[in-house]
Amino acid sequence: MSGKGYSYKGHGTNSQGNHYCSRDYGNGSNAYHYSNSDGSYYYSNPNGSTYHNNGNGNSTYTSPSGYSYSSSNRSSSSRGSNSK
């Protein structure tokens, strides 16, 4: 471990300018994220939650239990659902 509670498994940028990073938090807990040249990004967190932003102001957070919360900067509405 790096003293930060994780070690890097891998990271890099492809020819399209999309970046990824993968981390190992120990005890089977891993995390990664992608940052794309179109402004979108995705996080998979060590607690099992995920977060996706499509680069156009729309995002979805999914909790470890499967509850999803979506939001948009184009409207004031949001919705929640349990996908599990």
Task: Explain this structure.
It is a single chain. The chain has 84 residues and is mainly β. The chain has one domain (7-73). Helices cover 0% and strands 51% of the residues. It has strands at residues 7-13, 19-24, 30-35, 41-44, 50-53, 58-62, 67-72, 78-82. Strands 1-2-3-4-5-6-7-8 form an 8-stranded antiparallel sheet, with no helix packed on it. Strand 5 (50-53) and strand 6 (58-62) form a beta hairpin. The chain is flat. The N and C termini lie far apart (33 Å).
Strand neighbour order, sheet with most strands: 1-2-3-4-5-6-7-8
**Domain module count:** 1
Compute the number of helices: 0
Rg from alpha-carbon coordinates:
15 Å
Amount of beta strand: over 45%
Q: Give helix % range.
A: under 10%
What is the averaged pLDDT score? 86
SS elements, strand count: 8
Give the H and E element order: EEEEEEEE
Uncertain regions spanning at least 5 consecutive residues: 75-79
The largest β sheet comes out as:
8 strands, antiparallel
Based on secondary structure, the structural category is: mainly beta
Q: Please report the distance between the alpha carbons of the first and last residues.
A: 33 Å
What's the SSE blueprint?
Blueprint: E1 7-13, E2 19-24, E3 30-35, E4 41-44, E5 50-53, E6 58-62, E7 67-72, E8 78-82
Antiparallel strand pairs: 1-2, 2-3, 3-4, 4-5, 5-6, 6-7, 7-8
Provide a brief overview of the structure.
This protein has 84 residues and is mainly beta. It contains no helices and eight strands. The protein has one domain.
